């Protein structure tokens, strides 16, 4: 009994220290990668503005409305489903009134149904964990969003990595469809000049 309490007292500081180390790592990353931080902040601002425009009243919060908004590297994805074409048009018009984005991907279906939040989160987690486990893939280049078992992949990516991520998503059990919303970076092997 005494020994098990001693183990618990020993393990608690180790887990707390682990949190501190990851915070230090994040702080160091912020100092050396300011450009990326500014992009993330800009994406956050875009997301706040888009949310405000979309949900300024109760119209898109009614029963049967399920929308998910994602912003990544200036691109905006609005996906989900709405119960009528009128509401779909309203959401599209509100989102198009936004400025400062690179591109809008409007993936909203018309039907009334329940959200699959738990299943969608589980699918995203399975895909992200496989991406993180692969040393050949830069996980920061991709944003994975799953709505209604449809996986949306966003990012500015290298073709080889994109193919690997698409293969992972397509071969994940439970995925109905994979939608590519990526820009491909083609880096030449020879220097210019």
UniProtKB/TrEMBL annotation:
Keyword Lipoprotein: yes
InterPro entries named among the record's database cross-references: BON_dom, Lipoprotein_DolP
PROSITE patterns in alphabetical order: BON
BON domain span: 119-189
Keyword annotations: Lipoprotein, Membrane, Transmembrane, Transmembrane helix
UniProt signal peptide: none
Pfam annotation, one family: BON
Residues that span the membrane, as ranges: 6-32
PANTHER family from the UniProt entry: BON DOMAIN-CONTAINING PROTEIN, OUTER MEMBRANE LIPOPROTEIN DOLP
Protein name: Hemolysin, lipoprotein
């Amino acid at each position: 009994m005494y020994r098990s309490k001693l183990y618990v007292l020993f393990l608690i500081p180790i887990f707390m220290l682990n949190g501190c180390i990851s915070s230090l790592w994040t702080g160091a990353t912020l100092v050396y990668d300011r450009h990326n931080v500014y992009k993330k902040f800009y994406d956050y601002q875009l997301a706040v503005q888009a949310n405000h425009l979309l949900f300024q009243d109760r119209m898109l919060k009614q029963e049967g409305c399920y929308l998910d908004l994602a912003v990544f590297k200036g691109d905006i994805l609005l996906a989900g489903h709405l119960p009528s074409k009128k509401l779909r048009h309203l959401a599209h018009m509100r989102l198009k009134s936004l400025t400062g984005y690179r591109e809008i991907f409007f993936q909203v279906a018309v039907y009334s149904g329940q959200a699959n939040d738990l299943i969608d989160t589980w699918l995203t987690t399975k895909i992200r964990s496989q991406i993180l486990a692969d040393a050949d893939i830069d996980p920061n280049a991709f944003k994975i969003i799953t709505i209604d078992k449809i996986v949306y992949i966003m990012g500015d990516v290298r073709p080889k990595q994109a193919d690997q991520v698409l293969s992972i998503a397509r071969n994940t059990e439970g995925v109905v469809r994979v939608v590519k919303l990526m820009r491909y970076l083609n880096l030449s092997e020879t220097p210019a000049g």
